[in-house]
Amino acid sequence: MIEVKNLYKKFGQNEVLKGLNLDISNKGIFTILGPNGSGKTTLIKSILGMVIPDSGDIIINGENVKKQWDYRLNIDYMPQIANFPSNLTVNELFDMIIDLRIEEKRKDELIKLFGLSEFLTKKLGTLSGGTNQKVNIVLSFMFDSPIIILDEPTTGLDPVSLIRLKDLITSEKEKGKTILITTHIMDFVEQISDQIVFILEGVIYFRGTVNELKEKTNQENIERAIASILTDTYA
Amino acid sequence: MLKILKYSFYDLIRSRWSYVYLAFYLLLGSVLLFLNNDLSKAVITLMNVIVVLTPLIGTIFGIMYYYSSREFTELLLAQPIRRSNIFLGQYLGVALSLSASLIIGLGIPFIAYGIFYSGAIWDYLTLLITATFLTLIFTALAFNIAISTENRIKGFGYAILLWLFMAVIYDGLFLLGLIMFSEYPLENFSLFATMLNPIDLSRILILLKLDISALMGYTGAVFQKFFGTNRGLIISFSVLIIWTVLPIWRIIYKSNRKDF
After folding, report:
1. Can you tell me the distance from the alpha carbon of B249 to that of B227, in angstroms, rounded to the nearest whole number?
2. Would you list the domain boundaries of chain B?
């Protein structure tokens, strides 16, 4: 489904991706982990075509995405920071994005799930950070695309919404979708991920299940497992 | 692109500043007509205000809109839309809503005064078209600066400097050049120098149309002598079109290569 071949990207002097290879051909939830600045967001944005790689190929469903745009119809993306135009109301924003894509599949269901009904006619500029994040969630899940990419989806959510988000992600997985998530919350990783993709210094350092990671590092707990990788490589 | 344009346009015409801008032109137009009591004179006075003000507003709105919608742009970039359509849509949204404020704001008082029954109608239309061109040009230039400058404060600074340069400093330097080299034949130099500044060019275009040689100044006179009134008008319009197309082309070029 998603194939990344030998991806390089430099921002000025800073070489972020150094020949990264990744092949995700099966379904399930893949959490992308790595320390700050390891290239997680750059990888995601390259897949989406927001960052233009210096070299390398990204192939999605058998099609090279270079200079293409229509492949994004198959991807739902939730950005890290949701900052919408402040003059529009929530409803207008939904209508606008729906207008740009073909059709929504379950907007109303999601609005109910995250309790957004009362905010629909409010202007986006007046909403709180958490409510904005919920709008962001509804916006990214309502198209029911086969690939979902979530960048730090848990930011600013209250516990109830967090549980609902987890359930939502799990039910999406059961529908047979491919889901990529970046996060720094290790509990979240442990609960939902089928596979961990650990990026370190611009290449994939480890790929496998949570248990494999624990075995490899001889640690009981995933937080410590990750910390041990980092201290080993930094030492 | 039309969808993005539609939403940017709606977003902007609902913001308070579009109405302030519109109200300003309404007031300016009405007061000038009331004070001058003469359409042609009002057009001349308006010209002096417009050739400086529309670039300033275009620059500021352009740069502010680009920076304030950055995160939203990122959301759009992840949608199945061509990149150039996003930026062209946003640009046209800003430029057209500003032009709409201008045309409506100046249109109402002049129509109420009876511009359609007066001989000054073509002068007045030239003024509106030129002002629209200046809005298109300077909004595009502001978008260019914003796309190339990540730092908002710097971008804002560059944009204001650009306006200051084109509206004020350029004329000073130009005049200085004319004085320093007054021994030499300067016709070609001044023609060329005028074309490099859309504000000067617009001023001459309107003066050519109004045919007021007393106000034309040196470059205006050179322009008229060199090209004659009609050819002068056609050439200055063509150069304004080039001034519009080039920055828009660069918006597309730059946006296709930028990382977000």
Report:
1. 29
2. 2-155+165-257
